[in-house]
Amino acid sequence: QVQLVESGGGLVQPGGSLRLSCAPSGTIFNIRAMAWYRQASGKQRELVAAILVGSSTNYADSVKGRFTISADNAKNTLYLQMNSLKPEDTAVYYCYDVMRGVWGQGTQVTVSS
Q: Residue 44 to residues 5, 18, 39, 41, 92: CA-CA distances in angstroms?
């Protein structure tokens, strides 16, 4: 069973940036279709961004123009570049492998002054 490990979360001030990474633990696989979700306290998990490698990307309206999803198969890693962060972006962020139906354990992002 593939395990996904996220990293890069933390505390950042409004207007700041973070880059999240997601990579499989103990194995190597070709990234085909993956996504980032987030779940704020007391709210449902929501889709943030998705990528079909070599084809397309999709973003939630709330992050369009601020977040960028990308994949580097040479490094076996999925990324989420988050710029112009807002307090409402505070959540636990999860990566998800669409092809394998596997979730990462999540990484906390807190945007606060």
A: 21, 22, 6, 8, 11
| Beta pairing partners, 68 | 81
For residue 94, what is the enclosing H or E element? strand 91-97
Apex CA 89: angle with CA 99 and CA 41, to 5°? 85
Token pair for 24:
């499989």
User: What does the block give as tokens for 17?
Assistant: 């940036």
Please write the tens of the pLDDT for every residue from 60-105.
Answer: 999 999 999 999 989 999 999 999 999 999 999 999 999 989 999 9
Q: In angstroms, rounded to a whole number, what is the distance separating the alpha carbons of residues 43 and 20?
A: 21
Distance between start and end Cα atoms, the chain = 40
pLDDT tens-place string over residues 24-50 = 887 777 888 999 999 999 999 999 999
* Tokens encoding 45: 């998990």
